[in-house]
């Protein structure tokens, strides 16, 4: 059970880093630091978009628009951190043999 809990926790951690990479890439594209017509940049951006957009879409349905500020990545990261901590709090003592 400990291995499964650790695996789920690591998957959540990796997804959080994907969200951060997606946000940084969008800033770099918006400020013209990197060229979006570069094929490698496009492939990375498209992959990150495909991984994050389904979760963002669900959050954007409930969060009002804040002009140019997108709060979906922040809300998603906070939700994933809460979920990871909740999993460790609920299942951690069971795995460690406390109960």
Features:
mainly alpha, 99 residues
Kindly describe this structure.
With about 100 residues, the chain is an all-alpha fold. About 75% of the residues lie in helices and about 0% in strands. The mean pLDDT is about 90.
Summarize the structure.
The chain is mainly alpha-helical. It is built from three helices and no strands.
How do the strands and helices of this protein lay out in sequence?
Elements: H1 2-30, H2 39-60, H3 72-96
Helix pairs in contact: 1-2, 1-3, 2-3
Q: Which structural class do you get from the secondary structure elements?
A: mainly alpha
Fraction of residues in H or I helices: over 70%
Oligomeric grouping of the chains: single chain
Task: Report low-confidence residues grouped into runs of 5 or more.
Answer: none
- H/E element string? HHH
How many beta-strand segments?
A: 0
Proportion of residues in extended strands: under 5%
- Radius of gyration equals 17 Å
Q: What does the main sheet amount to?
A: none
Mean pLDDT: 91
Report the end-to-end length measured between terminal Cα atoms.
Answer: 14 Å
Tally the helices.
Answer: 3
General form: globular
């Amino acid at each position: 059970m400990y291995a499964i809990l650790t695996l789920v926790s690591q998957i959540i951690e990796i997804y959080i880093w994907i969200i951060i990479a997606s946000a940084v890439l969008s800033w770099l594209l918006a400020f013209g630091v990197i060229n979006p017509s570069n094929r490698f940049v496009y492939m990375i951006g498209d992959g990150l978009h495909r991984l994050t957009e389904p979760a963002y879409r669900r959050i954007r349905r409930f969060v009002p628009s804040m002009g140019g500020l997108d709060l979906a990545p922040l809300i998603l990261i906070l939700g994933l951190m809460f979920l990871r901590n909740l999993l460790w709090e609920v299942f951690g003592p069971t795995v460690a043999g406390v109960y």
